[in-house]
Amino acid sequence: MTESGGAPGGRGRLTPVAPPAAAPLTPEALLAAVARGDEAAFARLYDATVPRVYGLVRRVLRDPAQAEEVVQEVMLEVWRTAARFEPARGSATGWILTMAHRRAVDRVRAEEASAARVLRVAAATVDVPYDDVVDRATGRLERQQVRHCLDALTDLQREAITLAYYGGHTYREVAALLDAGLPSIKTRMRDGLIRLRDCLGVEVSR
Amino acid sequence: MTDIHTLAGAYALDALDELERAAFDRHLRECAACATEVAELREAAARLADPTWSVPPPALRDRVLADIGRTRQVGPELPRPARRGAAPRWRRFAAAAAVVGLATAGGAAGAFAWQQRELRQERAVLAATRAEAARMQAVMTAPDARVHGGDLAGGGRITVVVSARENLGVVVLAAPPAEAGKVYQYWMLDGARPVSAAVLASGEHHSTRVLAGVQGMESFGVTVEPAGGSPTPSLPVRAGIPLV
């Protein structure tokens, strides 16, 4: 999207004019540029999204070293498959996070039986942000909004959703952990997410 | 709301096991309303990453940026031929589904009924796969297992392991794809006339199959036939392998 805001004549130019470094491009615009092989756009997209990607993956895996591996894989996948992103199906950030979450969950399940993971989870401390200062300065409102919306769910909805999303558990495992029936957990996950969606004002243009 | 549809929340949270995930993925391709709902639920779920916000070590950035410098990008996904694209997969499942007595949807059966059966059929496929693996193991570990093999005219290789004691054979094919609209078919000959042993699915050219009733068979043959197979082998025979 290096041409956004440019003069109509700019389209025919052979050398693209670089936008000012501070131009506030959306993740979607950056991703579109990445799809065309723009490495600088990728670096900016990385900076814009990686704290959430890393935070999420680390939360699920509970292991910073493994989290880094997975984030590296995910970001490489973003680069590789940027052209496959379909804006009609959601935001660029959502696309990346969906990919990250799935990979993290896949890895957790692959080593589910390993004693190492049990030990790691047991030993894991509460999440401490790597850079607490930046953490506090950025995205605070969004985080508060999510917490607020999570609080608005029923206990069962919230527990079912967080055990699945942050814990990487299947709904069967969640049902066992919460001592609830499968149909009830399926339903709570769905209506809980619907409530979350409405509370957060999430929209997907189609 | 079909039964499978209630899994939308669990799906958006990646809380389905692999089998259910695969079934739901296919369901999504056929149900536009579900796709919209799932897209929204996914988007909402992704927002759950917000409170986890945490900056990774800067060295990770360097590694990733170095990575992309040597990684080729893929092109956009071209529009896939709608609906009918599922046909080859369907045919593969049909055999396994028939084994456990599930109704197999014929060409005229509606997609709706098919969707509802997807999950059960996936399970049937899994059960059939396990049974097949057990039979394969029986052949491979049989004390009288004998390995035969040969090259295919036109490229590729076929390996046949038979155990008369188990009355089973394992056939491994590694060959180029059959010509457009054609499939590989296996035959067994007991001296009198060739009997069809298996018709491979369209596009199946790297394949491992278990064949029953190998006892007394003198040779094994491979031909290329129109999709669905032929009652008698068409010439030329791609491979003929003596089993005795």
TrEMBL record, chain A:
Q: Which Gene3D superfamilies match?
A: 1.10.1740.10, Winged helix-like DNA-binding domain superfamily/Winged helix DNA-binding domain
Q: Where would I find the RNA polymerase sigma factor 70 region 4 type domain in this sequence?
A: 143-195
Tell me where in this chain the RNA polymerase sigma-70 region domain is found. 45-111
Q: InterPro entries annotated for this entry?
A: RNA_pol_sigma-70-like (IPR039425), RNA_pol_sigma-70_dom (IPR014284), RNA_pol_sigma70_r2 (IPR007627), RNA_pol_sigma70_r4_t2 (IPR013249), RNA_pol_sigma_r2 (IPR013325), RNA_pol_sigma_r3/r4-like (IPR013324), WH-like_DNA-bd_sf (IPR036388)
- What CDD domains does the entry give? Sigma70_r4 (cd06171)
Q: List the molecular function annotations (GO) for this entry.
A: DNA binding; sigma factor activity
One GO biological process this protein is involved in is: DNA-templated transcription initiation
Q: Give the keywords, sorted.
A: Sigma factor, Transcription, Transcription regulation
One Pfam entry for this protein is Sigma70_r4_2
**Similarity comment:** Belongs to the sigma-70 factor family. ECF subfamily.
Check the record and name the NCBIfam families matching this protein.
PRK09646.1, sigma70-ECF
The protein's name: RNA polymerase sigma factor SigK
Species of provenance: Pilimelia terevasa
From TrEMBL, chain B:
Q: Where in the cell is it found?
A: Cell membrane; Membrane
Q: Which GO terms describe its biological process?
A: regulation of translation
GO MF entry, a single one: sigma factor antagonist activity
Q: Tell me how this protein sits in the membrane.
A: Single-pass membrane protein
Residues of the Anti-sigma-K factor RskA N-terminal domain: 5-46
Q: Where is the signal peptide?
A: none
Q: Which UniProt keywords apply?
A: Cell membrane, Membrane, Transcription, Transcription regulation, Transmembrane, Transmembrane helix
Xref: Pfam families: RskA_C, RskA_N
Q: Where is the Anti-sigma K factor RskA C-terminal domain?
A: 94-237
Q: What is this protein called?
A: Regulator of SigK
